[in-house]
Amino acid sequence: MNAKAHTNLQLDAASFRAIADLAYRESGLTLVEEKATMIQSRLRQRLRALGLSNFQDYCTLIGSDDGHTERRHLISALTTNVSHFFRESHHFETLATVLENRLPHLRAGGTMRIWSAGCSNGQEAVSALITLLEHAPEVANLDLRILGTDIDPKVVAFARAGVYPDRLMGGVSDALRAKYFTNANTADGEAEYATNEMIRRMIRFNELNLLGQWPMARPFDLILCRNVVIYFDAQTQAALWPRFRKVLKSDGLLFLGHSERISDPARFGFDCTGPTTYAPLA
Question: Which domains are present in the chain?
Answer without folding.
Answer: 3-78 (1.10.155.10), 89-280 (3.40.50.150)
